[in-house]
Specification:
The chain has 379 residues and is of the alpha/beta class. It has a domain at 120-358: Spore Coat Polysaccharide Biosynthesis Protein SpsA, Chain A. 32% of the residues lie in helices and 19% in strands. The chain is built from ten helices and 16 strands. Strand 1 (34-36) and strand 2 form a beta hairpin. The chain is elongated and about 120 Å long. Bound molecules: uridine-5'-diphosphate and manganese (II) ion (MN). Manganese (II) ion binds next to loops. It is an enzyme of class 2 (transferase).
């Protein structure tokens, strides 16, 4: 049984086949072919018919290998020339098409914008640096959450620098952690109880931070209580040196709305909107939330031929209402260095409403202390 099994087993056949092929590879004619005996000598084969079959098998095997190779070669060749996937999904790397428009007076040469758009998509966006002074009062959570959620909708990169007075509060830290916006939570050590200094020292702490870390982006002072459109933040990235726009605001009396900011011809500033008589003394009629500038002016003033050497700061020595103009005078020489943003300055992008309620109690931890004070009992 064991010997029969061995004879029939494919392994045995294969072994025989290989041996025979090895012997035949001497390329001697079949009639003179010899098999090697155990002593290494050749002798005439006593099994010539068997040898013929073996040769036949070898030839067939050789042919089979050849045809297999040929088959795989052809298969590989066709697989190689068939495109995989959808070629349309690859970016079009062809050079842009030139579009020539002939006219009597000039020839305009344009290029296909598609490739340009693809390249500009790869360029990193300018960093926006939003500076918000804030302090603990009843509406703070509402204001910070509202602004944070808006900033979250702005295309990154955006850095929100939130500056508190005296100490960083747990409540503010909690809100910032949850907004999902990249932020820095700073504290100013300058102690000031003068009302006209609202936010001045906090903004200066942020300016110092930007100068120290050489942050490169567009700086915008966004108080926590103002109302902003998303469009405003999108338009900031087009600013090169100093951009300004008109802001709608409630007059101090709160019984009328006024407009403050530039009058423009395209992006050129040609005049100012202002309603208050005393403001005639100001050089520039811009609200704190009505301008933004390039942060490199703070730490590389030579590059911008800045009228003042460093450090550029908000002043706590000037009369109320003069903080903006005295700051802007350090950043630009005149209107020619300003950019009306967006061009023509005809859109109102944010509102300064002075809605703060300073005397409303600040709830620690945003928790109600007397949660169980039931006014109306449940029946
Ligand atoms: N602010 C502050 N500490 C203060 C008063 C104001 O940090 O003691 C902040 C306030 O949160 C806001 C900015 O400074 O972001 C401007 O303050 P406010 O809105 O009172 O000024 P106004 O709008 O009347 O100029
Ligand atoms: Mn305000």
């Amino acid at each position: 049984m064991a010997s029969i099994r061995r004879t029939l087993s494919p392994a045995r056949h294969e072994r025989l086949y290989h041996n025979e092929a090895a012997v035949s590879s001497s390329f001697t004619p079949a009639s003179q072919r010899h098999l090697q005996n155990g002593n290494g000598k050749y002798q005439s084969s006593p099994h010539l018919p068997l040898f013929g079959v073996q040769t036949l098998l070898w030839r067939r095997g050789w042919r089979r290998s050849f045809y297999r190779c040929l088959l795989f070669f052809i298969l590989g060749f066709f697989l190689g020339i068939i495109p995989f996937g959808n070629i349309e999904s690859f970016p079009d790397l062809k050079p842009p098409l030139a579009i020539v428009q002939a006219n009597d007076n000039y020839v305009a040469l344009g290029i296909d914008k598609k490739l340009e758009d693809q390249i500009s998509e790869l360029e990193p966006e300018k960093l926006l640096i939003i500076v918000t002074p804030t302090y603990n009062r009843a509406f703070q959570a509402y204001f910070l959450n509202r602004l944070g959620q808006l900033l979250r909708l702005v295309k990154p990169p955006l850095l929100w620098i939130v500056v508190e007075e005296k100490a960083a509060s747990f409540e503010t830290a909690e809100i910032l952690r949850k907004t999902g916006v990249m932020y820095r939570h700073l504290v100013t050590t300058v102690n000031s109880s003068i009302v006209k200094d609202r936010g001045v020292h906090q903004r200066n702490a942020a300016l110092e931070h930007m100068g120290h870390h050489k942050l490169d982006g567009i700086v915008y002072f966004a108080d926590d209580d103002n109302v902003y459109s998303l469009e405003l933040f999108e338009s900031l990235r087009s600013i090169s040196r100093f951009g300004t726009w008109p802001v709608a605001m409630l007059a101090a009396s709160k019984n009328k709305a006024i407009l403050e900011g530039p009058v423009c011809n395209g992006s050129q500033v040609i005049g100012w909107h202002t309603n208050e008589k005393s403001k005639g003394l100001r050089r520039f009629h811009v609200d704190m939330s009505g301008f933004a500038f390039n942060s490199t002016i703070l730490w590389d003033p030579k590059r911008w031929r800045c009228p003042f050497p460093n450090p550029i700061r908000q002043l706590d020595t000037v009369k109320e209402g003069f903080q903006e103009t005295t700051f802007i005078e350090q950043v630009v020489e005149d209107e020619s260095q300003m950019e009306g943003t967006p061009p023509s300055c005809s859109r109102i992008l944010n509102w300064h409403l002075h809605l703060d309620a300073r005397n409303v109690v600040y709830p620690g931890g945003w928790l109600l202390q007397k949660n169980l004070d039931v006014v109306l009992p449940i029946k």
